[in-house]
Design a protein that fits this description.
The protein has four helices and no strands. The protein is an all-alpha fold and about 80 residues long.
Length: about 80
């Protein structure tokens, strides 16, 4: 098996990474389908951290919780400022 004194590498496969931009697009579509204003709902979520602002329709709530709020804000600012 090998020398147990050596450090072994252990890698865990990450869940397929989805871009923040793609997540926002899917969440926006789900919110629109349910008749919500996506901008208002996303602002409420980003400011409060309360996932209840995001519909569970089409798994949007679970999807948006895959990324941290600060990552979403970073993506929005980078997109706006560049």
């Amino acid at each position: 098996m090998g020398d147990m004194q050596e450090t072994m590498m252990f890698k865990v496969k990450k869940e397929e990474e989805i871009k923040v931009r793609d997540i926002l697009a899917e969440v926006q579509a789900a919110l629109k389908e349910k008749g919500y204003n996506p901008i208002n709902q996303l602002i409420g979520y980003l400011l409060s951290g309360d996932p209840a602002y995001i519909t569970s329709h089409k798994g949007a709530r679970d999807l948006i919780r895959r990324v941290e709020r600060d990552e979403i804000i970073r993506e929005l600012l980078e997109s706006y400022l560049t």
